[in-house]
Design goal:
Blueprint (H helix, E strand, L loop, with lengths): L3 E2 L2 E2 L6 E3 L2 E5 L5 H10 L1 H4 L17 H13 L4 E7 L7 E12 L5 E8 L8 H14 L6 E6 L4 H10 L2 E12 L2 E11 L27
Parallel strand pairs: 7-8
Antiparallel strand pairs: 1-2, 3-4, 4-5, 5-6, 6-7, 8-10, 9-10
Helix pairs in contact: 4-5
Length: about 220
């Protein structure tokens, strides 16, 4: 049985955009650009990337298997896995990062958790807050979900600024909450409920995305 949103059955694929920032599903043909971006940003994202404990039994999987799993989970309403794109004036969209709403629960809970990263070469243009606002507005609007959480390591000051810009509420610290960068790490928890967002959406809380970098953004 498909999850039911306030506008009927949940649908996937979904693409969203605001100015030069876009969210779209990940495709198999994105493999080359995705691996290039991840390789180029290894030192930038590794301190915040989820890792597997040494006793984890999960097998590694290929990019194609990852995309298939993402799309299956998205169609089932368990996650929203997007690539973030950025388009310069007169240019073509380029891969700018990744935005995933994972762990979506329906029924009486209706919540999910956001995680994201942005290419360091494109940081400082308002991409991460815009992408998170787009994802949240889709969750709270067409999907009819109630709660969005973001877990951020205390050291990730750039990502902390992202949730601050969007008005997420700090809810406390969760010790050893997630395995990140090779160890169980404490995380600060932020959340937002649908009724805390006005008719202008989270997008309405942001200035237009910038076309030239001024300050850095990071991943969560």
């Amino acid at each position: 049985m498909r999850p039911v949103s306030r506008f009927g059955p949940h649908r996937w694929p979904v693409s969203l955009a605001h100015g030069p920032v876009g969210l779209r599903p990940i495709r198999r043909r994105d493999a080359r650009a995705w691996f290039e971006a991840r390789g180029r940003n290894g030192g930038w994202t590794t301190p915040w990337d989820g890792t597997r404990p040494s006793d984890a039994a999960e097998d590694d999987f290929t990019f194609e298997q990852m995309v298939s799993r993402f799309n299956a989970d998205a169609r089932a309403g368990r996650s929203l896995p997007w690539l973030i794109t950025w388009t310069e004036p007169g240019g073509r969209p380029v891969l700018a990062g990744q935005m995933t709403i994972s762990g979506i629960v329906w029924g009486s809970a209706r919540w999910g958790m956001a995680g994201y990263w942005v290419d360091r070469d494109l940081a400082g243009r308002g991409i991460a807050p815009t992408a998170l606002a787009l994802a949240a507005d889709h969750m709270f609007g067409p999907m009819g979900l109630h709660r969005l959480e973001v877990a951020i390591r205390p050291e990730n000051t750039k990502s902390l600024r992202v949730v601050e810009k969007l008005g997420f509420r700090f809810e406390g610290t969760r010790p050893a909450y997630m395995h990140v960068d090779g160890a169980w790490r404490d995380h600060l928890m932020f959340a937002l409920h649908a009724e805390e967002v006005g008719p202008e959406g989270l997008i309405g809380r942001l200035p237009p995305p910038r076309t030239r970098a001024t300050t850095g953004e990071d991943s969560s």
